[in-house]
Amino acid sequence: MTVTTPLPQQPAEISERDRERALSELRRRFPGVMVWVGKHTMHWWAAICDNDGDRLIEAATPAELGRRLDAAGMRPHPPHQRQEQQPILQPQRRRLGPLQTA
Asked: Which residues lie within the region annotated Disordered (predicted)?
């Protein structure tokens, strides 16, 4: 079962804890997209590279930023589904014979 944290809908007074959760959720949903909150503007930002080149996307809330990223073609990463653990293969170590010289 996958639990997705809902993103805050309102820009007013998001706590530091909720801000960090929303940033983590956006980064998980849109891997490879740089996302942050402006220190002075308190707006939500993303830097993307698409067919139009590099650009910034700004939004008042994390939910709005998620919608704008989706509209820009930044497809959300599918929710992580737990799979069975695969055994980690260890490289084989072989002993080399004596060095042959010509």
From this structure: 67-102
